[in-house]
Amino acid sequence: MPHRTRPMTALLVFTVVNVVLVSTITPVYDFVCFLPYWERRRERRRLEHEALSNKSQSP
Fold first, then answer.
1. Transmembrane residues, as ranges (predicted)?
2. Full-prediction pTM beyond 0.70?
3. What are the E-state strand segments in 1-59?
């Protein structure tokens, strides 16, 4: 029994999946990028950078 293709159904499913993914990307991006872990890491790296700069500037 051969498989019947349904291009309109496939196109509709593809479009719906893409709309769902696009609509959920912003909250996911915000959640991942603005976690407190990243803020703490950014602050720790800034402090380390300042300490190295101060250490290299002192005679």
1. 12-38
2. no
3. none
Render pLDDT for 30-39 as a digit per residue (tens, 0 to 9).
888 888 888 8
Encoded tokens for 1 = 């029994």
In this structure, what are the phi and psi dihedrals at residue 58, rounded to the nearest 5 degrees? -75, 145
Distance of CA 4 to the CA centre of its chain: 38
Instruction: Please give the Cα distance from 56 to 48 (Å, whole number).
Output: 12
Q: How crowded is residue 17: how many other Cβ atoms within 10 Å of its Cβ?
A: 10
Q: Is 49 helix (H, G, I), strand (E, B) or coil?
A: helix
Residue with the two structure tokens 């101060």: 54
Alpha helices in the chain (DSSP H): 7-33, 36-57
Concatenate the DSSP letters of all residues of 35-50 into one string.
-HHHHHHHHHHHHHHH
